[in-house]
Recover the amino acids of this structure.
């Protein structure tokens, strides 16, 4: 382990399970004090999709335990990011609990796929809220604290669906119902690049990282078609780490992808505990052709 993040504090949203938990583990393995947040501290929180309630495994307590078992440091601060009051006060709670904030990873999300003809206003509003408004609010709250420290890193979790649609249209595009999700992710990519320009002179780097294909998580399993080839989470997590390390003047405004970026830049990909190097993994030929290897 290189301890590249020793002395830094990171906030990772949506970190009770899946991608968020993995990001928190990797940043902690590099020496960061990681504040993890989700709706519930000790038990799985219900998730509502298409009017139905689902209970997905995972809690902040489990994430903290995994980090501490590996020798890292984590703090759990429960917050419902759909609640305006809770999300407005989250960054201040992080600073009070951890003494500052250096890295913000906007990972928390809500994916409820539906074709536009069948989508409710509530689903549309929640999707835009999660993927545009929440990152905007948390970034705005984090900026003054990062300015005080003279540097900072904001990483938004993007998606290849936010890139141009592959033509001719695939059967998946006709029925998947990911159009509003994809549109929100495209907006998040643009927010990332615009905020990067605004923050460059303050030394605050702003980048986005998305899966090159898809990652199997408790939340994603119901959305992926049968037989879809997924990728290990470690490649995305390593790319997030790379976007959380060097000064803004060296790397900011990128929308990078998990398999493409490490492969193109010969970046070693490590296990979540930072101890084992994983095999170099070439992006599959069927990945979105609009992905640029070193980022957009």
């Amino acid at each position: 382990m290189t301890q590249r993040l020793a002395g830094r504090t990171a906030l990772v949203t949506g970190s009770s399970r899946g991608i968020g938990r993995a990001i928190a583990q990797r940043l902690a393995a590099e020496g960061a004090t990681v504040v993890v947040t989700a709706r519930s501290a000790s038990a799985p929180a219900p998730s509502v999709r298409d009017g139905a309630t689902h209970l997905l495994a995972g809690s902040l307590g489990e994430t903290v335990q995994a980090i501490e078992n590996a020798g890292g440091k984590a703090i759990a601060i429960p917050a419902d990011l759909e609640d305006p009051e809770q999300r407005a006060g989250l960054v201040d709670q992080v600073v009070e609990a951890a003494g500052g904030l250096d890295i913000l990873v906007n990972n928390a999300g809500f994916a409820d796929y539906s074709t536009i003809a069948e989508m409710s206003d509530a689903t549309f509003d929640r999707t835009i809220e999660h993927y545009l408004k929440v990152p905007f609010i948390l970034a705005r709250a984090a900026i003054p604290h990062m300015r005080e420290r003279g540097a900072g890193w904001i990483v938004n979790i993007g998606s290849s669906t936010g890139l141009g649609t592959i033509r001719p249209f695939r059967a998946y595009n006709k029925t998947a119902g990911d159009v509003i999700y994809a549109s929100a992710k495209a907006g998040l990519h643009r927010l990332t690049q615009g905020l990067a320009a605004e923050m460059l002179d303050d030394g605050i780097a702003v980048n986005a990282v998305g899966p090159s294909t898809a990652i199997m998580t408790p939340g994603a399993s119901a959305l992926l078609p049968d037989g879809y080839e997924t990728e290990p989470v470690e490649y995305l997590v390593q790319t997030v780490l790379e976007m959380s390390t060097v000064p803004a003047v060296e790397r900011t405004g990128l929308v990078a992808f998990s398999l493409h970026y490490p492969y193109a830049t010969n970046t070693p990909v490590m296990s979540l505990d930072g101890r084992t190097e994983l095999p170099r993994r070439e992006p599959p030929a069927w990945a979105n052709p609009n992905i640029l290897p070193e980022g957009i």
Remarks:
- The domain at 9-265 is CATH 3.40.50.720 (Rossmann fold).
- The helical segments are 18-29, 60-69, 84-98, 121-149, 171-175, 179-199, 233-242, 260-265.
